[in-house]
Amino acid sequence: MQFKFDILIPYLPQFGSALLVTLQVTISALLLGIVLAIPLSLFKILPVKPLNWLAAFYTSIFRGVPLMVQVFMMYFGIPLVTGLRFNAFQAGTLIFAMNSAAYLSESLRGGIRGIDRGQFEAATALGVRYPGMMKDIIFPQAIKSVMPSIVNEFISLLKNTTLIASIGLVDILRVGQSVQTATYRAFEPFFFISVFYYVLVMLLSLLGKLLERQVNKSDRH
Amino acid sequence: MIDIKGLYKSFGQLQVLRGISLKVSDGEVVCIIGPSGSGKSTLLRSINLLERPTYGEIWIDGKLITPPDPYLHFDVIRASNTYRHMAQERQLPPDSPEDLDIVRRIKEQDLLKPREGRPYLDLMRRIEREHRVDDHYTRRRIGMVFQHFNLFPHMTVMENMVYAPMHVNKLSRQEAEQKALTLLNTVGLMDKKDVYPATLSGGQKQRVAIARALCMEPEYLLFDEPTSALDPEMVKEVLAVIKALVESGISMVLVTHEMGFAREIADRICFLDEGILVEDAPPDVFFSTPKSDRAKAFLEKVL
Ligand SMILES: Nc1ncnc2c1ncn2[C@@H]1O[C@H](COP(=O)(O)OP(=O)(O)OP(=O)(O)O)[C@@H](O)[C@H]1O
Ligand SMILES: [Mg+2]
User: Could you report the predicted ipTM of this complex, rounded to two decimals?
Assistant: First the structure.
């Protein structure tokens, strides 16, 4: 068996644009996920039972349903019921963002819980109102402890976005498949893709480790 | 003036404060002492509503800061269905012995329920409308210093100090910084304005915390064991700052275990035990001739 990595060369431009799609979906989903996670974590900690239930229910949906099913639901199912039209990129980004929000809101809640009660009390005693207190005093401290989870989420998103190939978006995996179809060679394209993901994930993990050390180092008092 | 009337506080089954009444006049320094778990912090934290009283009212400068307590107003009790049932439609003249007896029973046995009829609710609402102020109004006028400083770790000393004046009192950054600098100067930490709290010693943190509270120009200051978390060599510098404040004439309520300091600065000592205000006396009287056995036993242990 001989390896012929040169067969990949003609496909490099395609790999390049596919990489762009993968990163676009991943990064937009992550950012949107963070934005959604903030109100969601608030719903979880506010002393309002119905909001707590709502947020818990939301999170359990994304825990309980396989990701692939979620993606199909978003792309094929929801438009039929609601009449909303998504293209594959929008549907993928949205469902991954909602997924990340569920996960990140959980760690953000943990981060808020971990903040010394004295911080809330000092702000309250100074007359600071709840929204300002959360925005300027609690969240900035909670986010710091959530940074490692954000990196973890980045990693799983990066890997999970391969699922968008299944709704027809041309990401790296999809290009690999078309190389296989055209050349009858499976090892080289998928090996290339594996190495690509592996290196990217290792770099991100390293970043996560550094951030974690940073968080542990900083004095909490 | 702070006027605490018949304050009760329970956490679930645990009764922490059991009928505390206490006045703090303008410019007065009141020290609260007592054994651990006697309810000192809970009492102090009630004054700026970090704890909500179960019963009782707190008035500050003629404004009611807690919900009205029907049990403190005889006319409210008399307007209730419970009173009406117990008086059985008899026309009892107010303050007749029978009438007072019923009022006392309702009060002592905690017989009022949320649904007590229109006249009762109307009276409660009238008291609220005429006297009640909102929590933020109260907290703006009362500064608090905590045992563990509670500086915001992600803000520099200066940011810690200007945050509330800018966001709560709506000062411009320039005004707020001006005031902060003056106060940092009085606590001797001018050179620390741009550092983060993590780099300060305990004594320095507490001095910043005091200055931060003063930035809001409070009329009353509450201290909850401000030196208990400090290494011994740092206690002095913090006490010196507090002493200077006493001389400036601000009203103060201070929970402390520093008996010598309390004796030196207090106008009155309040001795709390098991949620009851056992003694309330000038320091010389309290420390030389405590009246109750509980205070004697406590002083023997700590002096
Ligand atoms: N939020 C709370 N929930 C339940 N119990 C509480 C709460 N806060 C205080 N307690 C209880 O109330 C009692 C009085 O507490 P408090 O902190 O007022 O005492 P203290 O006199 O300040 O004691 P110390 O000198 O140890 O500070 C204690 O038994 C404490 O465990
Ligand atoms: Mg205490």
Answer: 0.92
